[in-house]
Design a protein that fits this description.
Number of helices: 2
Largest sheet: 6 strands, antiparallel
Mean pLDDT: 93
Helix content: 10-25%
Distance between the termini: 54 Å
Radius of gyration: 16 Å
């Protein structure tokens, strides 16, 4: 007879959750794969104008839900303006990137499968300031299959 584990609901107030930074973006973990039966991880991110990764690919699904502000999201050759209330899902290995257009922006990022969170956690350890140190970042990119495109 198989037994199942009963998980507890997650209830977080504003500002609660594990917090870290990646290249100037402030991340707050709201739920992880361990919390969601292995399904997904969600981060609340606050970032500032001009920040965002260049065009890249990775082997996990990613979705953005914009809470405040505006950002340009590039998917392949198309760029869309995403503002509060916008939702954008990007399948694995689809080229994409984004740039914060407003002074600040707050958005949710959902990633799946659950192990994708390891990339963000490791990036938070090696890229916790706005200055990019490729010597520290490159091994994390390679380990998790993230590739920057020209």
């Amino acid at each position: 007879m198989q037994t199942s584990t009963i998980r507890k609901p997650i209830i977080l107030t504003p500002g609660e959750g594990n917090q870290f930074s990646i290249l100037g973006g402030h991340f707050t973990t709201k739920a992880t794969g361990e919390d969601t039966n292995g399904a997904w991880t969600v981060y609340e991110i606050t970032d500032t104008q001009g920040n965002g990764p260049p065009l890249h690919t990775h082997p996990w699904e990613e979705a953005f839900y914009i809470l405040e502000g505006e950002m340009d999201i590039r998917i392949g050759i198309q760029t869309i303006l995403a503002s509060a209330g916008s939702f954008v899902h990007i399948p694995h290995n689809v080229p994409h990137g984004f740039n914060i257009r407003s002074t600040t922006a707050k958005f949710l990022v959902l990633v799946s499968p659950k192990d994708a969170k390891k990339f963000y956690e490791e990036m938070g350890e090696v890229a916790d300031s706005p200055a990019l140190n490729m010597e520290k970042v490159e091994p994390v990119l390679k380990k998790h299959g993230l590739q920057f495109l020209n």
